[in-house]
Amino acid sequence: MKMKQIITSFFVLFTAINVFGQATDPLDYVDPMIGTARMGHTYPGATAPFGMVQLSPDTDTIPYAVNGKYTGDVYKYCAGYQYEDKTIVGFSHTHFSGTGHSDLGDFLIMPTVGSLQLNPGTSDKPETGYRSRFSHDTEDAEAGYYKVQLDDHDIQAELTATTRVGVHRYTFPETDEAHLILDMMYGIYNYDEKTTWSFIRMENDTLITGYKSTNGWARTRTMYFAMSLSKPVKSYGFKSFEKHPYKGFWGRFDQENNFPEAANEKIRVHFDFDMKEGEQLIVKMALSPVSTEGALKNLQAEAAGLSFDAIKRLTQNAWRKELNKVEVKTIDEPEMTNFYTAMYHAFLGPTIYQDVDGKYKGIDQNIHQADGFTNYTSFSLWDTYRALHPLFNVLQPARNQQMIQSMMAHYDQSVHKMLPIWSHHANENWCMIGYHSVPVIADAVMKGNADFDIEKAFAACVQTANTRYFDGIGDYIDMGYVPEDKSRASVSKTLEYAYDDWCIAQMAKKLGKKELYDEFMKRSESYKQVYDSKTGFMRPKLSNGEWVEEFDPLDTHWKGFIEGNAWNYSLYVPHDPASMIDMMGGKKQFTGHLDSLFTMELPDKYFEHTEDISRDGIIGNYVHGNEPSHHVVYLFDWTDEPWRAQNKIRMILKAMYKPASNGLGGNDDFGQMSAWYLFSSLGFYPVAPGSVDYALGSPAVEEATIHLENGKDFKVVAKNQSDKNVYVSKVLLNGKEVKSNFLSHDDLMAGGELVFYMSSKPKKK
Fold this sequence. Notes:
Largest sheet: 9 strands, antiparallel
Distance between the termini: 48 Å
Radius of gyration: 26 Å
Strand order of the largest sheet: 10-11-12-13-21-17-16-15-19
CATH class of the domain at 33-321: Mainly Beta
Strand content: 15-25%
Helix content: 10-25%
């Protein structure tokens, strides 16, 4: 991959301090290519912070299913881009960042020259379609900008974006056969019936509007667009690929050539131009969840009258502002790249989902007006409640409040009267388990970042937790656990419900609701119902109270668990580690048990059928590449040997995060993997969101200054920092020694200085 060029800037206010004490640009250390090599972790395209538009190259068109059967290879294309691929199909405007399942890929655009081709071709024979070969040597990926040479067409492609507008700049060779392909059929995790309808209008010779409706992960999703061209088309045409027995009276028109509208499930469009050598075509594609009128308003508000370079500059300055919320000094440049790339990934989503006038489509499929908040979507909550939203309570508190208000809007519009489980684009897709909007809300409430109706939010949490027909909750309430013969992944569900219930109890206590506090604290102890003292593991139980006989604590595929095994999930009691440790034999026995997790072997056979777990995300039997284990290493803080966490944290940071195309040890899951890195690099981690305490670890930075939204600074310093000095001998907070293994949120938000004294030898006393 070509090294991205250093971006020069006269915006001195948006600079950080590097290891040499000189002004530097944090964008120099953002590498959007990190994690693009496997499982579709990320995409290297152009977006504004939390942008609705996430514009990126897509490198293949593998369908989700063929003849009704799932094609496993499609899993690599969750984000649309694979580093190993040799061709680019085109550039689409919406993506998920490494979510492990997928959707989107709206409005794919591809510039071509030569004979018109309206099929994408194949990766082994790209010349049979509109796709093109490319080389990583010509790629340049930065925050808010992407560039590549399309070799088959001799076209330089550049991308940038505003919040709601994707901007393309294509530099052509001289030709009288230049084309711009708009593929309305393309989609990520695509299949023949996914696009349910498309509509396009030629408003004039430089403006096109339309929409696309799909049935995928979101089963009723519509996105509208308005596309502006910098050069009038000389001709255009539509090609429909779906036949209907009823054609109405449209047959009187030649609808394929220069006819100003088209409607069909499957449409591809071509716009034709004459181009001079080096002539550039600028394409501005504005999106809207509401209407083409809304898309036009977004286009006018964010991109009208602005050049490509001006938009790029504005977007990159927006990224500078966000990235400079933490100024870092590290022991080596690769760690700077890891750190600021992790911040970049963490600030990709959830995404803004409303027009500039505040209108958005709700989960009831009606149009709503966001009043007093910005509406967000794409809540990957099974992942992001763990560290990403707690990170937002430090670095993005105002946005996090708006995200919670968006969740409350979802609740108000839901026919189930439930908070989001995994929602995107005006849909609930019901992915994964738990009701993890609850810890997001509880964490904000308990940490004093709740400028919203707390009583209403609390009531929504209780209502969601008592929705008996959702995923075994009725049995969980009645029996104290989820029985495996009634609901699969029963142990995982029991454990996650118990934690969520503890979060509700904390809010109840804060609000003075003793009866509800007692009820949900009792529910929070449900993890004890699925602990088998004979095996020493959490174990699936039947509705008759008997254990499931077939039980292997290494198995990661169902058998009571989802995306994890009994070894890892048995440690999932983040809200009550002390009681869990006592239950498992006390501190000494637990310490040995936990320590062995990192040294034992997990044979491939135990995860070969589990897509979200792969060898490069595993250390021993510790699965860092998937979220249920993210708090595990910090459990040593509840033992008499917290030093055992310190060297392992640094080991995980080095093993799972590298400045390379395969540099993530698992799906980033919309920023959760990156948020773990950021917290752990800074030396503390939120083991139980909903608690006001962070567990201390081993910082990887030399210095970091967090510029808090309240105007105060919190500085982390690691004295004697090195790759060998991974142990902490002493911690001072504002000059006073910290006697516990924990840091409070109030101390962090008050500003000040946290100093770690590092050593090559563990402090065992």
